[in-house]
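hiii, so i know i said id send this last week but things got crazy w the move. better late than never?? heres the sequnce for the chain we talked about at the cafe, plus the structure i predicted for it. fair warning i was half asleep when i ran it
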Amino acid sequence: MDTLLPLAPLSALSSQQTRDHEAIEKRAQEFEALMIAEFLKPMFDSVSTPSLFGGEGAEQSIFGGMMQEQYANAIAERGGIGIADQVKAALIELQSASTQEQEIRP
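okay and structure toks below
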């Protein structure tokens, strides 16, 4: 398993690098929320709503999906399960490798 290198604090970066890191962090968190939503889907699918409260109609599936998405976003915003950290580190590594390649080429 690869070891992660410590990331530079945002205060040590230029303004462009800071914006890049913030964008990467946002995208990594969005990806984690998407993955968490997929993990939650079987849990929500296994729960049936009593007919007294609306049953299993089209509205239930629409609002159930929206609720699932909001749960996933809330979990990701509060630290998630670690997917965003891994994605963020990989994206930053790819970005720095790309930057180094551009600096080497004339």
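btw The first helix runs from residue 15 to 45. thought thatd interest u
miss u guys!!
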